[in-house]
Structure formats: C-alpha cells, structure tokens
Amino acid sequence: MAAPAQKTLKDLNGKWGMNKTLSDDTDRVLQLKTNDKGYEGKPANNHQQGVSWFMRRAIALASVTLTVKQYDKDGVTHMDCTQVATGGITSIENRTLDWQLRDDTDKVFGDVKGKSRWVKLSDIDDDDYLKTGYDDLEGEHVQAWTEGKKGGWTANQVSSFEPMWTFSPQPCALPQRFR
Length: 179
What we know:
By secondary structure, the chain is mainly β. Helix content is 7%, strand content 38%. The protein has 2 helices and 9 strands, in the order E-H-H-E-E-E-E-E-E-E-E. The strands form 2 sheets. The chain has a 5-stranded antiparallel beta sheet with strand order 4-3-2-1-9, with no helix packed on it. The C terminus is likely disordered.
C-alpha cells in the first residue's frame, strides 16, 4: 500500500518496500566518477565508487525491504535502517542526525566516513542543485554526506519524503532462497 498520510520524515518507523516504477535506475549513479572537492578540500577528482558491473546488476534486479527504527536520544534523532535484498542479503545503516563525522563499513562501498543532519534547504550553501525539486521548500530535510575512504569519492544528498517506497503495516515476506 502507499505510505499512510501520517508518515513523514519525522516518523519513518516501519517496513518499507521500494517501488521501482517510481524510482530511477541506480546503475549510472553506482558507476559514477566524482569530479568535485573531497572532504575538507582534499582532492577527489576522477575517483570511482568502485562498484563492479556484477554488483550493479545484482542491485538493479533485487527487491529491497527497508526496516526503519527512528527515535530521539538525548535530543538527537537516530535512524537505524536494515535493508534486506532478494535472497536475504542484509546491510545495516545507522544514521545519527548530529552532523558529526563517523567511520563505517558498507557492504557495497567498503570503508566510508559520513555525517547526517536535519537541514532546511535555505541552510545548504555549497550546492544549489541540492535545493531544487522538492514539494516542501520550508520544512526540514535529511542531509547525508559520505566519503569513500578508498577511491576518494564523495556523496552529498538531501532527502525528502517521496512516494518511491510503499509501507507495509505487516511484516514483509522475504524470499527464502539463498539463506
């Protein structure tokens, strides 16, 4: 079913399934070369994310279920996300929205460092592109900045609540193959 009206960025708790008919193809993003500044001005020109063709194809074909536990602790929002792809392949991404740099290891991108925060579009001063294309221009969005430790790539994204995920009020049935 589509996301209930009460679901917003401030409450993403639940299980979500990606609606690929409303989503863009991920292949071009995953093979992306950077051509910008790295973190703190360190050069990151012409570095690749290092996602192989085989991995990009597997990601494109997989169905993904995302379970989100969102909560506040000591005045800071936490988003603990567990992604389960076709075949039971699981990855965990926990975000603390306090704009503090943290190290992590990602199954697709390897060793990374990143930071996240709540942000108003008017407070983003480094990239006008990140401020466009949203229905909500006044409210808060989630900004996530990540740098690959190997390859030197950076990703700076701003997220809003978009209808590319469907909400499942019941536990999602996952494929049993390959478990």
